[in-house]
Design a protein that fits this description.
alpha+beta, binds FE2/S2 (inorganic) cluster, 3 domains, Rossmann fold, Alpha-Beta Plaits, five-stranded mixed β-sheet, binds iron/sulfur cluster, elongated
């Protein structure tokens, strides 16, 4: 079943501007979108629950009401499904008591049978119901204590609590990663639309009618999909929660660092949410040109291993000594290297002269893009290597030419972990140095190891497969304060230490014309498109 016809049309820089009257004043708004987006573009926030910019509009929550002038005068409409038209007359709560009171009534209606769970609800602090209550609700309770609440849900999951009240299902296991609290669901059907239209695998449904409606999977089936945790992001309430994050942290305790997931060349934009040096979750960071609001489970749950199995800070001199041994050196960089790391890699190569050669790539195969938030190429910064003048996929050549080399330095590249069979050919290179964040299979094969910061702990840049320059920011979560970023390690091995990422970026921007004029400040949070650059 598909109804893509009502995907919202979002405003862009090329949207034609039209004049409409809002609360008695003429304003210019994008003319090719819905009223909710158009009002937002001029700074007027409209509370909404079921609307999501990357899902088809279903218009079921009625929270986004405004008044629009029609043939019979001003009338209430849902702004999320009302197209903008030049000359339209709109009233928001700023000028319309009717809009104010109906929004308040909708808010009251949604909360009347909603549990008083906020103190124990994982969504508290980032819950749309709470936000809307503050903006559009603030009702005195009109609930009669002796009547109590009527909790809805699947009759099979009902239970009677210690006060004798019949309750809806509280910990309904939908699948391996997601739990449902039926009482907190407001039937916005965002989760249903996500699975149907984005995941492309309809695994959730609204069952029953009216106030008996509840979210469920098909009989005997589970919610189990590579993107299923996205439903916990877009659920406006605490109805859907990820098992990994339940009761771990109050969200207001978390600090957020904007970064980029370096496990794939699309470079999904992420928030690294951390507290007291510990990463608690990765969340998608909305970028309309990259991953929109989505993040795969693999990228999202990778954080669980960020602090595990790490290499400690190591002795620089032992690496320098190992590089001084006679013969040829193969420097083999992996896709997690930032542009700044690549600048330092080239400095290291230059310091070793003709006896060093750079190889780039991975033994992991490139697979098909999933069309959601992954390109399928595990070499995240492949376009960045190319931009800085390096062949970005020549590890297979190294396998063939292994006998030419006396020293192998792997840089953020777990060749043995990725494909031990192919890496076997490299075991003939006696002198092996591993520069890595983790104590990988490749580190086990090395005679010298050098621990560095993981990509989540560094500032830097990468170029994604579509030629978008994106910025990583350092989360203060390194398990060992002595660890240094890869660019600092490589430039120090080269004898010309760079301690600030920006310094390395400046070198890159001098070398590559398309980067000139860009700085960390001018790279927008959604990145900077580099003309003519692609992976
Ligand atoms: S979903 Fe959770 S945080 Fe939001 S109003 Fe309900 S109980 Fe409170
Ligand atoms: S579970 Fe969440 S996303 Fe799904 S319908 Fe209920 S409130 Fe909406
Ligand atoms: S946001 Fe418009 S009806 Fe739900």
């Amino acid at each position: 079943m598909s109804n893509h016809y009502n995907m919202p049309h979002l405003p862009s820089s090329s949207s034609p501007l039209v004049t409409i009257k809002v609360d008695g004043k003429d304003v210019q708004v994008p003319g090719d979108t819905n009223l909710l987006e158009a009002l937002q573009a001029v700074g007027i926030e409209t509370p909404h629950i079921c609307y999501h910019p990357y899902l088809p509009v279903s218009g079921n929550c009625r929270q986004c009401l405004v008044e629009v002038e029609g043939p019979r005068g001003m009338g209430l409409v849902i702004s999320c499904y009302t197209p903008v038209k030049a000359g339209m007359v709109v009233a928001t709560p700023a000028s319309s008591q009717r809009v104010k009171s109906t929004r308040k009534a909708v808010s009251e209606f949604m909360l009347v049978n909603h549990p008083l769970d906020c103190p124990i609800c994982d969504k508290a602090g980032e819950c749309t119901l709470q936000k809307n209550y503050m903006e559009a609700g603030q009702n005195e309770s009109r609930l009669r204590g002796e009547v109590g609440k009527h909790y809805h849900g699947n009759p099979d999951n009902e239970f009677v609590d210690s006060k004798g009240q019949t309750r809806g299902g509280k910990r309904v296991d939908l699948g391996p990663r997601v739990l449902l609290d039926e009482e907190r669901c407001v039937q916005c059907d965002r989760c249903v639309r996500f699975m149907r239209h984005v995941a492309g695998d309809e695994q959730l449904q609204l069952a029953a009618r009216s106030d008996h409606t509840y979210i469920t999977t098909f009989p005997g089936e589970k919610l189990d999909h590579e993107y299923d945790l996205c439903v916990t992001d877009i659920c406006p309430t605490g109805a859907l929660t990820g098992k990994y994050f339940r009761f771990q942290q109050r969200v207001w305790m978390l600090s957020r660092t904007p970064s980029v997931s370096m496990d794939d060349s699309l470079g999904a934009n992420i928030w690294i949410d951390h507290n007291e040096g510990h990463v608690w979750r990765l969340m998608p960071r909305c970028n309309p040109e990259v991953n929109r609001s989505w993040l795969s489970n693999t990228s999202r749950l990778a954080f669980e291993k960020f602090a595990e199995n790490r290499l400690p800070a190591s002795d620089i001199e032992s690496v320098k000594l190992a590089l001084q041994t006679q013969g040829k050196v193969a420097l083999v960089a992996g896709g997690e290297c930032t542009l700044e790391d690549i600048v330092a890699l080239k400095m290291l190569k230059a310091s070793l002269g003709d006896r060093a050669e750079i190889f780039v790539g991975s033994f992991r195969p490139v697979v098909a893009a999933d069309g959601i938030a992954k390109s399928g190429d595990p070499v995240a910064n492949r376009a960045g290597f190319k931009l800085l003048g390096l062949a970005a996929d020549n590890v297979a050549d190294l396998v063939k030419r292994a006998s030419e080399f006396n020293t192998l330095m792997t840089i953020n590249n777990d060749l043995w972990g990725d494909d031990a069979k192919q890496a076997k050919a490299l075991e003939g290179i006696e002198n092996r140095i591993a520069v890595a964040a983790f104590n990988t299979e490749t580190a086990h094969k090395a005679n010298v190891v050098f621990g560095v910061n993981h990509w989540s702990e560094v500032t830097g840049t990468m170029v994604n497969c579509n030629g978008i320059l994106q910025k990583l920011s350092a989360a203060p979560t390194a398990p060992d304060a002595e660890l240094i970023p890869t660019f600092q390690a490589l430039s120090t091995f080269a004898g010309t230490p760079i301690t600030e990422a920006l310094e390395a970026f400046k070198i890159a921007s001098k070398e590559v014309p398309v980067l000139s004029g860009l700085s960390y400040e001018t790279i927008r949070s959604t990145g900077a498109k580099l003309d003519g650059v692609q992976a």
